[in-house]
Write a structure and sequence with these properties.
Blueprint (H helix, E strand, L loop, with lengths): L4 E4 L14 H13 L5 E3 L4 E8 L3 E8 L6 H12 L6 E7 L7 E4 L8 H9 L5 E6 L10 H5 L5 H9 L1 H14 L1 H8 L12
Parallel strand pairs: 1-4, 1-5, 5-7
Antiparallel strand pairs: 2-3, 3-4, 6-7
Helix pairs in contact: 1-6, 2-3, 6-7
Length: about 200
Amino acid sequence: MSFRLVVGLGNPGSEYAATRHNAGFRVLDAFALSKGATAWRKERSFKGELADLSDSRHGKLVLLKPATFMNESGLSVQKVCSFYKIPPEQVVVLYDEINLALGEVKISLSGSAGGHNGLADLLVRIAPRFARLRIGIGRKPHKEMALADYVLGKFTPEEETLFTASMDRYVDSLVRLLRDGPEMAMNQINRKKKNDDSNSI
């Protein structure tokens, strides 16, 4: 079954643009730019920004950045899925993952929210059978630090350099997931296998 909706999680507004919690937005933006998607458009009825990507293999792919703020991300996804009649199995969600080192990326098909409020809202509002592209942002520097303070903080200059340098890897991982399906993509990405046949989805 082909994927039809790719969702990047994050918070709207320039004050959040460079925060760790907006890794999903940033990777989706990079993917959209690299693949020639349509310009982002605000859709009030869907409570988000949408873009479209036409692909000869999969047909139309809808890209979504919820504008509901992180804690209600599922509301926007729910509205888009309902309108386009997209089942959870055809949804990919990109989000920041504190349990992966910065620069790492993994694909999964299940699991708990792990303290991620955006993912938690998705699990409540739609069935949990969606694919996840987990973008590593690293753990808190010390246990006493509030999780919200960490994920809503900006990368250090060194971290930003690494995140930017890893963008091609993030986009390539998404391409593989869309092109090859979750099982094959997990074998390639999660085991850190690399090859160069990633030019088209």
